Structures are given as C-alpha cells and as structure tokens.
Amino acid sequence: MKFPVVLASLLPFVPFMAGSAEAPQPRSVAAVGIGRMIGNVEFKDLSGQAHRLRTLAAAQPFTVIAVTSPSCPLSRKYAPTLAALEDAWKAKGVQFIFTGAIVTDPPESLAALAEQHALDGLCTADTNQSLLQALQAESTTEVFLIDRALTLHYRGAVDDQYGIGYQKDQPTQNYLADALAAVTVHQRPRLAATTAPGCALELEKPAPAAATALTWHRDVSRVIQRNCQECHRSGGTGPFEMSKMEDVTGHAAMIKKVINKGIMPPWFAAPQTGAHAITWANDRSLSETDRTALLTWLAGDRAAGDPAEAPVPLTWPQEWVMGTPDAVVEIPQPVAVAATGRMKYQYREVTTSFPEDRWVTGIEVRPTALEQVHHVLVFASAPGQRRVTDGDDFFAAYVPGSCATIYPEDYAKKLPAGARLTFQLHYTPNGTATEDRTRLGLKFSNAAPRYEVHVAAAKEHRFRIPPGAPNHEVKGTLPVPFDSQIISFMPHMHMRGKAFRYDLVDPAGERRELLSVPAYDFNWQLQYRSAEPVLAMTGSRIEATAWYDNSPENPNNPDSTKTVTWGDQTEEEMMIGYLEYVRVPASTKTASTPAKDAPLSLTPKALGLLGRRLDKDKDNRISREEAGPTFLALHQRLDLNGDGFVIADEVKKTAEKKR
C-alpha cells in the first residue's frame, strides 16, 4: 500500500492555539469585494487639510491603507511592523496611509503614535468615518492594498505574529508583504483576503446612497478583469477576448447564457457553510453582487461611464507565468492534432538528465497548441519503476487557465535523479489541424525543504457501469496512515462523470464533507485548492464517491448501450479522487529540519507482519472485516480475485507487479 504525499500550492494556515485565541483566517475574495473600486471619498489629515482618496492614490502605483488605534493593544504592537514595511516598500512604488478607527481616540494620540514609530505616510483620524466606511473596515489591525485606480487587491492581516490571546517571536505568515511582492510584479496575491484579529469596529451606518447606474468603466470592467481575463485575453486560452467593452457587448448573448447556466466562470464546488466550511484559494465563482451587476448591465443600456474610473489594465505574462524556469523538459516530437473528431489520449515519455535529486519549487506546463489542449497530466517515475499514468505519482497538471504552481517557502517536490516523465495529453480538435509540443518548466531550490510535497488518490479500478444507468455510484477509499494536512483536491472522471464528493471520516467515525462537485464537467479538470489545510489524523480515511450517467440523456455519452469499465481513453471511465497533502512530522512544533517524508510503502516483510496482526481468526486469510476501515483500501488493492479475502499468494503477486 502506498499513501504518497503531494504538492502544496499554498502555504497552509495552522491554527495557533485552542480556546479563545484568534489568528488570521482566510476569507472568500468574492465575499469581501476583492477587485472592486473603493469609493473616492474625502477625509482630512491631522492638520485639518482635506484630501480625496483618488488624488492621493494617483501619486504611487500602490497604496496601503492601514487601520490603527492608539487605544488598541494589537494596533500598537503592529506599529513597528508597519513602519518597517513602509520603509522597505517605499522605493518600490508603495505608499502608506494610516487611519484612526476609534472615534474616542484623540487625534494627538494618533500623531504621537506616528511620531514614536516614524510613520511617514499621511495620517487621518477619519472622525466622520468616511474612509472606514468606504473600506468597510472591520478591525483596528486591518490593512487594505489598492492601486492608482482604487481597485482593491488585498485586505486582511499584516501577518500572523500577533492575534487575540497569543503572540509569536516571529511571524510565520507575511500576508501584506506577500501581497505587495505579487502585485508589484503584476501578479495576483496568493491569498487576497484574511481576517485581521484586533479590536472590532462598529461603524455608523452611512446614509443610503442614491442609486447609481452601472457603468462599464467603474463596475463591469472590474468584474470582467477579476473573473474572465485570465483566459479571455490576447494569448489566452479563451475563444475570444474580453479586454474591451466592445468585446463583451459583442458576445453579450453567450455571456448571459453561460453565466445563467453556471458554466462560466468555470467553478463547480458546491458552497459550504458552518464551522468547517472550506475557503477555496482559487475560487473562480462569481459573487452574487458581481453576477447581478454583470447581468443587469448587459440587460440595460450598457453605459460606458467615465474613463477616469477605469481600472488599471492588467499585465499578463507572454510566456512563463512563474518566471524564467531553471530547466525546461519538452516532449521529443510534436504531436499532430487532428482538425475534427475525437482524439485518444496521447502519451509521450522524456527521461531527464539530472544527475542528482532535485527539489522543485515551481512547476509550469506550457502547451503550444493552447486552443486544442484539453488537459495535460505529467507523471514522474524513478529509474527502474514502472510507468505511472493514473494515480499516486501525478507530478504536474495543466488545464486552461491554470498552468503553473509555485510552492511556498519551505515546500518543494522531489524529482528523482534520472526520472522518467510521462506526459498524458488530451486534445480537443477545433476545426483546424495543428501540432503541439508541450513543455514542462521547472524551478529548483538548492536546499531540502522543511516539507516535502506529494500526491495521493482515493480511487477504484474495479467497477462496471451498466448500460443506460443514469446515476451509477462508485466509491474509493484512502486510509490515512499518518497525520497529514490536505492542501487540494482534483476529481477525475471521463465523459460519463456526473458528480463527485470527498468525505473525511475520522477515527471515531465522524464524517465531514470536504468537497462536493454536484455537476462535474469533463471539459474542466479543475483543482480545488484549500486556503486553509484540512487536518487528517492518523487512522482517518478519505472516502471518494463518484456518480456516472451512462444514459442516452447524457449528451457526452459515447455509447449508452455499453457496459463501461476502467480505461485510459475518454470512451472508457476512471474514478480517481486526487488530493494533495503534506505530512505533519512530529517535529512540527519545534520548527526545523528538512522533511524526509518519502511516500509510505509497505514492503513484503511489513505486509506479512501486518497480515499476522490482522488475521484474528488465524485462518491464513484476511477478511474485509478483519482489515477494518483503516486498511480497507489496501485490502481492496490486494484482493485480486475479488472474493473478499486476501491470501499470501495475492500479496506476492501484487509485490511482483510493483517491481
């Protein structure tokens, strides 16, 4: 049995302590208005001079508005940190504005705080709360990052050094600095919104604003920019651009159709609520506010508005999203892509020439036939290992709009010396014959990481989907043999795939839904990255459930009269619940040595010892009941004849196949 471990696409939040302590937590970017325009409000500085936010913001490419309060202990603790950030980013086109938050704080106390910590930016007591209301500020430690056009790029905590009920010697998460590092090189922050533990604010409710007509420049362009232009731009994978107002109005009917049907933007995770709701770091869904604004504007007079209110145009990379790679691996010969019909999966192998193991900190898959590539999966095999094309050694992935993964600090994936890379390429002909020569870009670290990242899968090979079955269920189970933090999920089925769900069942039998995809779409092999890792304890199990529609009513169904079994090609089926996670070593609390968590493998000797322990009735075979929920997935893999029992000969044959 193998429970390998995957790439961490986002440095996890780790709850700091229990009880009343409060640390920053991720927030949904759609729910808190990332991408919206902050109102051009007027407020006075400490000398009484009036300022307009737009005029101030125009002075530099980016502005940080830091909420503070001399009477809030956490605000005072963060003053030196803000001063250091202000000094560090001043030369990089970033200015700071400091706003008071508590109306009873005397303006002179704010001035004293600024003088004590050498805060250079403009200070305002914001006594009428106009700035705080425009920001919709919630705490005295919150910071907001905007650009010249008043577009909001980040809101939340400065870092995680201080919170309610705790403090650390050094921060382990530098949210504001990370956001600044991203936007100043024309990238989106990895994490664009968090909570900011501090003194809670209760702002006076502003007078109801007069209704204003939606305009392209002020409102709709920002919705499009945030949610659509990643693909719908020059050089992007979308079938048409959505950079200008005319691009959008020219495709208005189709845009309305796909939004109303929930097809675009492509995001299929069901919303979650409650204490264990997962915030998705790469959530592409439209907020209800943005959805209503876009549809209302398209249904109305489609006013252009004032060009002065337009957002700053986004700058997109022309080639490598992650920056220049340290190495590039290219498939040896171009693949001929047909003009019409369906193409079977193509497989191409490349043996790398790296003489030693390499620690990979960035991975990017770049097809050359962007319009025809449906998805690419890359699998890595060490020298002497069998070729892997469907599961535990999944190394990299490409789907339209998502091609690069940059690992956080202290995280990396191991590429063995001389590894063989297998490219699984799926093409969708679009009427034009072409060629593709996909490349894989790699960034390396010279040092071993603290956390090695791996991949695992809850999957099931042995299934038969009956002809005409409209809702056939297949389950797969993955035991958790050590404490782990799950980072992301990627369900994989083929053309009959209908829905998919992941559940975590803890050792006590308590069940928690992790991800539900009620309307699976084979055209979008999406990865769902959790902004906060999901802790899976030793003895838990991941249960994946897939549903298939083999009926004539499924328009994707190649043949509803056939019984469908496992297979690589799209007319066959797969049931794979990929997930990414990192192992939680026992030394996590002490901070230190590089991880050496190779995937857990049970050797023949270990399997023998385990078998003797599980064989409670000493009949030289292991039943499903004796395996129990912890080892059920291993039992299913070893039970070659499917009779419900594992015997020594089946273990031996399985071990021989692995060699």
Structure write-up:
The radius of gyration is 27 Å and the shape is globular. The chain is built from 13 helices and 32 strands. Strands 11, 14, 17, 18, 21, 22, 24, 27 and 29 form a nine-stranded mixed sheet that branches. A five-stranded mixed sheet has the order 6-5-4-7-8. It has 659 residues and is an alpha+beta fold. It has five domains: 42-183, Glutaredoxin (3-Layer(aba) Sandwich), CATH 3.40.30.10; 216-309, no CATH class; 327-448, Jelly Rolls, CATH 2.60.120.230; 454-590, Jelly Rolls; 602-658, EF-hand (Recoverin, domain 1, Orthogonal Bundle).
Number of strands: 32
Rg over C-alpha atoms, rounded to the nearest angstrom? 27 Å
Q: Approximately how much beta-strand content do the residues carry?
A: 25-35%
Highest CATH level, the class of the largest domain: Alpha Beta
The main sheet comes to: 9 strands, mixed
Low-confidence stretches: 1-19, 587-603
Helix content: 10-25%
CATH superfamily of the largest domain: Glutaredoxin
Q: What coarse outline follows from CA principal-axis ratios?
A: globular
The CATH architecture classification of the largest domain is 3-Layer(aba) Sandwich
What's the pLDDT, averaged over the residues?
A: 87
SS field, number of helical segments: 13
Total discrete domains: 5
Query: Which structural class is indicated by helix and strand composition?
Result: alpha+beta
Intertermini distance: 13 Å
Provide the CATH topology of the largest domain. Answer: Glutaredoxin
